[in-house]
Specification:
Largest sheet: 4 strands, antiparallel
Order of helices and strands: HEHHEEHHHEEHHEHHEHEHHHH
CATH superfamily of the domain at 35-70 and 156-310 and 359-476: Outer membrane efflux proteins (OEP)
Keywords: Cell outer membrane, Membrane, Transmembrane, Transmembrane beta strand, Transport
Structural class: alpha+beta
Main location: membrane
Family: Belongs to the outer membrane factor (OMF) (TC 1.B.17) family.
Pfam families: OEP (PF02321)
Strand content: 5-15%
CATH class of the domain at 35-70 and 156-310 and 359-476: Mainly Alpha
Protein name: Membrane protein
């Protein structure tokens, strides 16, 4: 009896523990759901961004069109079904046959003699010997085919153009990914920067609040004048305003990042701002940019299409050779069907002599397009060189600014400590303490901005060189001096 009572209790306890564990795991998952690393955020953008998905569909569409162009070498075979209705049956009488003959008039007496010999008039004989060639209603079905053997290179040109359009769509996608990556880095680390600024503002507010409390005590004991305490109050109120403003800036930055990641709640970055001790030489970035930038590759794809257009226009000057054939699947039982063959094959040769397509003008237009693309490529390479050099210099400037402010940070922290101690001892004013706190906040904010400028410039470098994945490598090898 006891065993039957213990068993349900054990089951109930195990079930309760399992439910509690599941709830705890769900709560932990919900707690961690808001944090995301930059690499994971980037994969989410690649998977969910509507603009990139549309570009991927464009690539797939171009791929299908390229596959369709590969079928241009195959023959065309079609089944046709024809129905004709004429004003009357097609007939042929002896008189009509004689009229069509060169010596038909000489045979008319023989026809008259034949009619008289059979006791018939010429008209009766003509009607008796009239043949029905075809009915006025005709139904027929046939298989027809054509196989191009030589088109002057126009088929190859069409296939090359389709391949070029697919490459263009792919490079357009790469360019879109580059833009989205730089936007993600800007939004992602914008949240990190906003949090850093908010933390700094909160620290400043806490320091000034403590200073205000000390000022109240000193004023009550008559150690400082009333204006000193008012200065501490004003500084604290301004710090509160700056902290609230920093909080609003953080909310705006989080909203931008959440929208980009299609997240319903606020997204908290798990990665921090960083910098690297060293970067590869600028020439390495320059070489990568002029060879791998999506814009350069996009123009190369356009040039391939222009060359294919030139080849196609040249093909208009060449003959077209092909095989053709036909097989009669169904035909009516009449004399016309008996006279026509059941199947036939042949070879056709078409030579363009005079046409109205303007092939010479189109050929010159294709050549002009090639020259235009070459000029655009040269100009883009020059622009990329300037862009890479500017971004590289910006990373160097950001590193120099961050490291140069290290001594200022140490000075600001020590100044805050000394000013608070001196104020408590009556050796400095409230304004000195406020200035020290604001100086410390300014140095921390400026250093955070330097890091933010560094990661954005580095993302621009990686995007310009067509290698956004290198940004994550630099992130893994970041300097240990950032704090």
């Amino acid at each position: 009896m006891i065993r039957w009572l213990v068993y349900p209790v054990v089951v109930l306890a195990a079930t309760t523990l399992w439910v509690i564990g599941m709830v705890a795991c769900a709560a932990a998952a919900e707690t961690d759901a808001g944090e995301i690393g930059l690499a994971s955020a980037w994969q989410q953008v690649l998977a969910d961004n509507d603009g990139l998905q549309a570009m991927k569909e464009e690539v797939r569409e171009a791929g299908f069109r390229r596959d369709a162009a590969a079928d241009l070498y195959w023959p065309e075979i079609g089944l046709s079904l024809d129905y004709l209705y004429a004003d009357s049956d097609v007939t042929l009488s002896p008189s009509e046959l004689l009229e069509s003959m060169a010596g038909g008039a000489q045979l008319v007496p023989y026809v008259s003699s034949l009619a008289a010999a059979n006791g018939m008039t010429v008209a009766q004989l003509d009607r008796a010997l009239t043949s029905r060639i075809a009915d006025r209603q005709q139904i027929s079905s046939s298989l027809r085919g054509f196989w191009p053997l030589y088109t002057g290179g126009r088929i190859e040109a069409a296939q090359e153009a389709a391949q070029g359009r697919m490459q263009e769509a792919d490079k357009r996608l790469k360019n879109g990914e580059r833009e989205q990556f730089e936007t993600l880095v800007r939004h992602y680390f914008g949240v990190v920067l906003a949090k850093t600024v908010l933390d700094t503002r909160q620290e400043t507010e806490a320091g000034l609040r403590q200073h205000r409390e000390h000022a109240l005590l000193l004023e009550q004991h008559g150690q400082i004048p009333h204006v000193e305490r008012m200065q501490s109050e004003a500084a604290l109120d301004k710090a509160v305003v700056e902290r609230k403003k920093a909080l609003r800036d953080l909310e705006i930055a989080e909203a931008a990042l959440s929208t980009m990641l299609k997240s319903e709640g606020a997204v908290s970055p798990a990665d921090a701002l960083f910098l690297n001790d060293t970067l590869p030489p600028m020439q390495e970035f320059l070489d990568l940019a002029v060879n791998n930038h999506p814009g350069i590759l996009l123009l190369a794809a356009k040039r391939e299409q222009a060359q294919a257009a030139e080849k196609a226009e040249k093909g208009r000057y060449h003959p077209t050779i092909g095989m053709f054939g036909s097989y009669q699947v169904y035909e009516q039982d009449d004399l016309a069907a008996e006279l026509l063959p059941d199947w036939l094959v042949g070879i056709s040769l078409q030579v363009p002599l005079v046409e109205r397509s303007g092939r010479s003008g189109l050929l010159n237009a294709a050549r002009s397009a090639i020259r235009r693309i070459d000029l655009l490529t040269a100009q883009l390479k020059n622009d990329l060189s300037v862009l890479v050099e500017r971004s590289y210099r910006q990373t160097e400037q950001a590193v120099e600014e961050y490291r140069g402010l290290g001594s200022s940070l140490a000075l600001a922290e020590e100044t805050v400590r000394l000013r608070n101690t001196s104020f408590d001892q009556g050796m400095s004013t409230s304004l000195d303490v406020v200035d020290a706190e604001l100086f410390l906040a300014g140095v921390k904010t400026q250093r955070a901005l330097a890091l933010y400028h560094y990661v954005n410039a580095l993302a621009g470098l990686c995007g310009t060189t067509g290698t956004p994945e290198r940004f994550f490598s630099y992130q893994k090898t970041q300097s240990n001096e950032v704090r």
